């Protein structure tokens, strides 16, 4: 199997290496070749670390040849979103203001992937500071969707999604604050997993909204996502918000879930996830998928979760407020790009920020600063926090009745590049179904569940109670086995 390709999936690639049919060196060359061939157009990578990746692959092959043990992701080519630090490489988070910044250390997740012998091929493109739904605001230019190059790959982890969907790498890390792993996964026909808040360390993730940010995998199947979470998740002394809960055996959960199937699983379907006016391509695609899961034995339970309908309004106050605090550190002095020819330090801060941040980031900083300002804080920020509590309680309550909650990941299929550029609100509404799990800190996953009549991928979202990734992955693996397999662009035909 010298023809093994990065898009083949982790189990296949591990077995092929163990059997001698391929090698880490071969896989990294295949990945670099695919990037060279296709990424000029897709723009999914902002930086390719070819030499370091080749060295990593050679080390894996050497260890294998000497009969030494190798890690659980040995020789697997991966992409890393460019808001995660990888030592020695620039980390720019899609922003001009971080021009010239080189990561002095590895983020915890990158260090854990290295320790698992994964081959880190490069850094992937994203919306500036992970704020967006189309990966169109990056200083490196927009990402294109491999399914249709005229369309967005989703955001903000659009580079990670496009790279995996096109088979340039086997899987990639993204970050999800309000949907940025799940939505691009849905737009690119992939599995995207946002873990429970606290499940994965945020140490070395360039912060957007610290009470929401979580790192998660984008992969071509549920099992691959589980294998990656198994490596990156778990307690971390470097991040006080990384929870002490030990990580269960997630691969075993997938296998048990697939074997057990859907009978006995109660699947809650909130009315609010099928609002009037929902794009019929999504309503039909997800509706048919839910019918298929029902026929396979799941019990569908209709839920009424009125507070979730206010998720967007709460999120677009809380996330910008936290961003305004987090991004205050970018002042042209400590990191990155500094404005030239200024008279004094106040002008230095002002000009560096005005030149360094793009319009969407500036919009968020203004919104967040306003929401926190004296006199408005009670009216906006504190009410948003109350709404967040209501949503969390409503979801907790719902999980007394059902095992998992299901619905669409996105309100529409991938839109055209530029289509929503002039309408920030329309972009914000892209997150209406992903935000409730973010605000409640719950694990959630997007699973491909078919295509629209014009052949664009549709995502089914599943939510589970906090720290129940096992249940989420078991249910997702069972559901995956009943749904039409997504077309693979980069893997075998
Ligand atoms: N699209 C959402 C936003 O723009 C979510 C981004 C994210 O999850 N990083 O804030």
Report on this structure.
A hairpin with a 5-residue loop joins strand 10 (444-451) and strand 11. It contains 16 helices and eleven strands. The chain is of the alpha/beta class and 493 residues long. Helix 8 packs across helix 16 (469-482). Strands 1-3-2-4-6-5-10-11-9-7-8 form an eleven-stranded mixed beta sheet, with helices on both faces. Bound molecules: glutamine. Glutamine (GLN) binds next to loops.
For the structure shown, list the relevant keywords.
binds glutamine, alpha/beta, 16 helices, 12% strand, 493 residues
Element layout with pairings:
Blueprint: H1 10-18, H2 24-42, E1 45-48, H3 50-65, E2 77-81, H4 108-115, E3 119-124, H5 158-165, E4 171-176, H6 182-187, E5 191-194, E6 214-219, H7 222-232, H8 250-260, E7 266-270, H9 280-295, E8 299-303, H10 311-326, H11 345-356, H12 359-372, H13 377-398, E9 404-408, H14 424-428, H15 435-440, E10 444-451, E11 457-463, H16 469-482
Parallel strand pairs: 2-3, 2-4, 7-8, 7-9
Antiparallel strand pairs: 1-3, 4-6, 5-6, 5-10, 9-11, 10-11
Helix pairs in contact: 2-3, 7-8, 8-16, 10-12, 10-13
The site of glutamine (GLN) has 13 residues, from loops.
